[in-house]
Design brief:
The chain has helices at residues 12-32, 38-50, 55-62, 66-78, 100-109, 112-120, 124-143, and strands at residues 52-54, 82-86, 94-98. The protein is mainly alpha-helical and 160 residues long. A hairpin with a 7-residue loop joins strand 2 (82-86) and strand 3 (94-98).
Length: 160
């Protein structure tokens, strides 16, 4: 081929895509034991960290829109892991909080990051180095303003 820049094997985005698929495949059996999908796990990570979040803030943390997050939260609520309530001062705003069952699941999930880390990094120093590189790459691509605008998730409404 006369255009190496068009080789699939030379595409950073394809490598990131393959990495994402491989990581999700490694997570799947671990999360199945917890009764969670990967997306639900990410939402639970945010909730374990903050204990309760408005839907809009959860969308921001997950970089997803309300059309994706709201059904995900409804499934977590149906499983008894979270509860949704409306703010009394503004009923348009939905707050998601952990139930006792959802909080208890945090202890069971503690081993998941460690298992995955063993697949990706050699030690804590290597972990920090790779995490920082990925953060830098995300910041760099999100800061680019030239060319077509980056597609950011759009929240449909704040209350979800």
């Amino acid at each position: 081929m006369s255009r190496p820049e068009l080789l699939l094997s030379n595409q950073l985005c394809f490598l990131v895509y393959r990495l994402d698929l491989a990581i999700e495949a490694k997570y799947r059996p671990l999360l199945a034991k917890l009764g969670l999908t990967y997306s639900q796990y990410l939402a639970m990570l945010a909730l374990w960290e903050h204990r309760e979040l408005e839907i809009g803030r959860l969308c921001d943390l997950l970089a997803l829109d309300t059309g994706t997050v709201s059904p995900l939260v409804k499934r977590l609520e149906a499983a008894g892991l979270v509860r949704r309530t409306r703010k009394t001062e503004d009923e348009r705003v939905v707050v998601v909080s952990l139930t006792e069952k959802g909080a208890a699941l945090e202890d069971k999930a503690r081993t998941v990051p460690r298992v995955l880390a063993r697949c990706l990094v050699a030690d804590e120093k290597d972990y920090a180095k790779k995490r920082d590189l990925l953060r830098q790459m995300v910041q760099q691509i999100e800061s680019i303003t030239e060319g077509p605008p980056a597609r950011k998730p759009v929240r449909k409404q704040h209350g979800g």
